[in-house]
Amino acid sequence: MSSSPPSALTATGIGKRFAGVTALSEVSLDFRPGEVLALMGENGAGKSTLLRVLSGDHTPDDGRLEIDGKPVIFDTPRAAMAAGVRVIYQEPEIIPHVSVAENVFVGELPQHGRVFNRRSLNRATQAALVEYGFENVLNPSTIGSRLSPAQRQIVEILRVLTATTPPKVIAFDEPTSSLSEHEVEALFRLIRRLRDSGVAVVYVSHRMNEIFRVADRVAVLRDGKLIGVKDATATDENELVRMMIGRDLSELRRRAAGNAGDVVLKLDSVTTDDVHDISFEVRAGEVVCLAGLVGAGRSELARAVFGDLPVRSGTVEFNGKPFHARNPGDAVRAGIGLAPEERKTDALLMQRSVRDNVSIAVLKRIRRFRIVRRAKERALVAEYIRELRVRTPSMEQEVRKLSGGNQQKIVLARWLARNPKLLILDEPTRGVDVGAKAEIYRIIDGLAAEGMALLVISSDMPEVLSLADRIVVMRGGRVAGEIARADATEEAVLTLAIPALEPAEEEVAS
Ligand SMILES: Nc1ncnc2c1ncn2[C@@H]1O[C@H](COP(=O)(O)OP(=O)(O)OP(=O)(O)O)[C@@H](O)[C@H]1O
Ligand SMILES: [Mg+2]
Description:
Blueprint: E1 9-18, E2 21-31, E3 35-40, H1 47-54, E4 62-67, E5 70-72, H2 77-82, E6 85-88, H3 100-104, H4 109-112, H5 118-132, H6 149-161, E7 169-173, H7 181-196, E8 200-204, H8 208-214, E9 217-222, E10 225-231, H9 237-245, E11 263-272, E12 278-283, E13 287-292, H10 298-305, E14 311-318, E15 321-322, H11 328-334, E16 336-339, H12 343-347, H13 354-363, H14 371-387, H15 404-418, E17 422-426, H16 434-449, E18 453-457, H17 461-467, E19 470-475, E20 478-484, H18 490-497
Parallel strand pairs: 3-8, 3-9, 6-7, 7-8, 13-18, 13-19, 16-17, 17-18
Antiparallel strand pairs: 1-2, 1-4, 4-5, 9-10, 11-12, 11-14, 14-15, 19-20
Helix pairs in contact: 13-14, 13-15, 14-15
This protein binds adenosine-5'-triphosphate and magnesium ion.
The site of adenosine-5'-triphosphate has 20 residues, from strand 2, helix 1 and helix 15.
């Protein structure tokens, strides 16, 4: 028998149960130095829970961890860190009132006894940003509360890379779900570099194309069990999908384009604090995708239309009439919906049950004749929750206990069921599994066919290309161009989205 490959960390027979849920059962995996192991599975399959066992955030109910053949017990995150095992989470904790630099070095400051002043912290952070290729995405002095999800993710990555204990195992939990194409490239370069330096990398993602670009082996979890481990070169998308969801996926076939109706939303030279001179239209029955890099101003534009950020100049027309939402309430009453990118802060009551979160969309409507509609709406949300296969032991479960992707499905279901005239979706499939993604595309397509106008912000290129009737690309707070469905290619989008590097006048983002 050949000797087994070296392992940086070995997990054997790991089990973890929560009230009513077996999150992991009998999971055995080895994490090998110099290798990227991808972890895939539907929302709620147990991926994040496994990472939390590796990071010492959860103590497993069964099984053991070993390093170099010796058992290790990670009963606290500190114990795992000391052994060089680090996890970069989906929703990193950021201290809101201090700078990026302080957020990066927050874990390190007290132990060192060194005196850091702000300038040296900023300098160290800037050096790390340049070294790892993120200097255009983040500024060391920005305050935590102002960071986008992508920027938060990068802060978390820098924390690990600048740690005093060099990492042996680094696990990324859906690192690209809030990054756009450009940052994804930087992240992949970083991951390959870590791998080549002998780190065991664990990579959780729902994006199939990424898996084949970056992974050496792929492990698939389903209902908390390990279904199998495949060499990336010896498997394909269909096999992985079958392992994950136990069936094949039907291709999204968009209805024939060209059935767009009246103009529902018309922006003319709209300018806010973040975006300038934005003009484009969305028609009834049309799906317009807003593409662009992180920081291009897409979410800010959406929030301005929704009355959540002020419009400084220019005009918005809705249903052919001038429209000015002073607050989101105005927008909702007029028939506009916005499912925001950050489910935690903007959209969900994390401490409340699934049922409460489903009802809340309609609680504020007190007029009596709407009661019937309310009941209908609630039934519709429940139906969407079924269709999207939200994994929860019951409607009474607290939302914070659901997996990330299942929380996202609830946000979406709520807005889909309200049936607005214009629905703005900001990264609607962020963190959603392949099966549910296909279902969401089918629902979006159906809503468009019924005449809804949809404006979809997405950093997921295959998503943009398969959903959009038209693509509006933003760059640096402005519209860089529009692409019709017939001309939509990845290259066309990227050419508009990425600032041209002309030797004479090099543009620098941020
Ligand atoms: N603290 C908790 N209390 C109760 N149940 C939990 C808790 N954490 C996770 N679960 C449940 O354990 C199961 C696995 O969740 P986990 O977060 O590991 O899924 P995941 O594979 O990461 O999914 P996603 O792709 O949506 O992120 C889910 O059913 C989830 O609801
Ligand atoms: Mg997860």
